[in-house]
Design brief:
- The radius of gyration is 23 Å and the shape is globular.
- The chain is built from 17 helices and 8 strands.
- With 446 residues, it is an alpha/beta fold.
- Strands 1, 2, 3, 4, 5, 6, 7 and 8 form an 8-stranded mixed beta sheet that branches.
- The structure holds S-adenosylmethionine.
- Residues 20, 22-24, 48, 50-51, 53, 68-71, 74, 238-240, 261-263, 270, 296-297 line the site of S-adenosylmethionine.
Length: 446
């Protein structure tokens, strides 16, 4: 039986393992499953799976699932949730306890409010503590050395465990506390250093209490679930061109439904805000961060030359989008005021155009893989942008429905969701409601 949910409960089971900006509500996934009549044994695809909310709800409901995301940290988090639900609960509990005891022992009597003295490093984390930290030179500029010593000790204890599943769960718990023990200003979404950061931070105590409570949440959900028969696969990939790379799992008749929440136009800077974890777990090098961000759909990163090419694309003969979408981008462009709209705002029309082109590629790519009639449910919100002193609404649900209809899907219905705010997605320029768009594949699109 699936765990019982309260309306506000978004962190039950393994959902709370790691925060993720833009994570959608588990209850929405379940409601979509009910509407589409999904049954245990069915298979869903989430091509923007992020931290794996839909994938974990699939486990709760007995569905198989395939998740794809371009952000390697998102894939790590989603895989950790899958691992938490499939590993033996006894192993998860025992090995977590083992890490707690060993770290308690190593750090017994240590004061975390002062920098550690150099000669204690060896006792706390071994003489070679730095070799356990990928990208350590970069991390040094954002973490006190005393914190890095603690992180190294935590990682060493986790890596010594005999279960890769438990390692993944605990590494992901560590990832979740990382920003809070760095020198980053916690109130700022962008990278900004605290003006006077403390000389140390309690990474070990924070990790231990977090691991114990999160593993406990998982174990309580596991106790209420019958044995889990379904299977889930999560991989790093690009939703615009993943069909080839999906190999065996891309068998067209395999998917009963697509259930997803795509990025918004001018989306959150997923890579930038998660750079510490991406670097610590060796997913990227520091010189790859910018390029990685630029590859994301909805990115705000854009060079002047790219903007010029996109502006030309918008007005050229081969626009690649429905006329309504082109007209909307044209309206935004006409609204620009060169003297009052700064560099970022000047990019907005081209960014919206690029976003819609990318989403068109995604629909075209996935349309090929789905049987005729397969439902594609997506949840997305509107946002506003101010150009030339006027505020415009970017009606993303409506624009995406038009793009989908042009790329192998039919619109079945759209529904306003009376929803509560998603984690961290609602910034000043977003509207606090979201829309569920249900499409149906025409089959063998384009
Ligand atoms: C709104 S979030 C999804 C959140 C997810 N539903 C969850 O519960 O965590 C959108 C996701 O799209 C991903 N994304 C952006 N561009 C992508 C691409 N080209 N291919 C696949 N995923 C991409 C981002 O990394 C982000 O995780």
């Amino acid at each position: 039986m699936a765990p019982v949910l309260s309306r506000q409960s978004t962190r039950y089971s393994a959902h709370g393992l790691h925060e993720y900006r833009g994570k959608f509500n588990p209850q929405i996934v379940r409601a979509i499953g009910n509407m589409l009549g999904l049954q245990p044994g069915d298979t869903i695809l989430d091509p923007f799976c992020g931290s794996g909310t839909a994938i974990l709800e699939a486990i709760h409901n007995g569905w198989n699932a395939v998740g794809i995301d371009a952000n390697p940290l998102a894939v790590q988090i989603a895989r950790a949730k899958v691992a938490a639900m499939h590993v033996s609960p006894y192993e998860l509990s025992d090995l977590t306890q083992r890490v707690v005891e060993r770290l308690d022992e190593r750090f017994a009597g240590v004061a975390f409010d002062k920098a550690f003295v150099l000669r204690s490093y060896g006792r706390l984390a071994g003489k070679e503590w730095e070799v356990h930290l990928p990208n350590v030179e970069y991390l040094r500029s954002w973490f006190r050395e005393s914190v890095l010593v603690q992180v190294s000790a935590i990682l060493q204890e986790i890596s010594a465990l005999p279960s890769l599943d438990v390692q993944l769960v605990l590494k992901t718990v560590l990832s979740d506390i990382l920003r809070s023990v760095s020198m980053q200003d916690p109130g700022d979404l962008r990278m900004r250093r605290l003006s006077s950061p403390p000389e140390n931070a309690p990474a070990v105590p924070l990790f231990l209490s977090s691991a114990l409570s999160k593993v406990d949440q998982v174990l309580r959900a596991r106790a209420r679930l019958e044995s889990i028969q379904c299977g889930q696969t999560v991989m790093v990939g690009d939703a615009r061109r993943c069909s080839g790379a999906m190999g065996d799992v891309a068998n067209p008749s395999r998917f009963s439904a697509v259930v997803t929440s795509p990025p918004y136009a001018t989306a959150l800077p997923y890579i930038d805000t998660q750079r510490f974890s991406l670097l610590l777990f060796g997913h990227v090098r520091s010189d790859e961060l910018r390029e990685q961000e630029r590859r994301m759909i909805g990115t705000r990163e854009m060079q002047a030359s790219e903007r010029e090419a996109l502006d030309q694309g918008m007005t050229g003969a081969k626009k690649g989008l429905p006329q309504e979408c082109i007209s909307f981008c044209g309206t935004l462009r006409a609204a620009l005021n060169n003297s009052t709209d700064g560099f970022r705002r000047q990019n907005t029309p081209a960014l919206v155009y690029k976003y819609l082109r990318d989403m068109a590629d995604m629909f075209g790519n996935l349309g090929h893989m789905l049987d005729p009639g397969t439902p594609f449910a997506l949840v997305v919100g509107r946002n506003t942008t101010t150009l030339g002193g006027r505020t415009y609404t970017v009606n993303t649900p409506e624009l995406l429905a038009l793009v989908a209809e042009d790329n192998g899907f039919e619109l079945q219905e759209t529904m306003e969701l009376d929803t509560y705010p998603r984690y961290d997605v609602h910034q000043a320029n977003s509207i606090r409601s979201e829309t569920l768009v249900i499409l149906r594949a025409r089959g063998n699109a384009c």
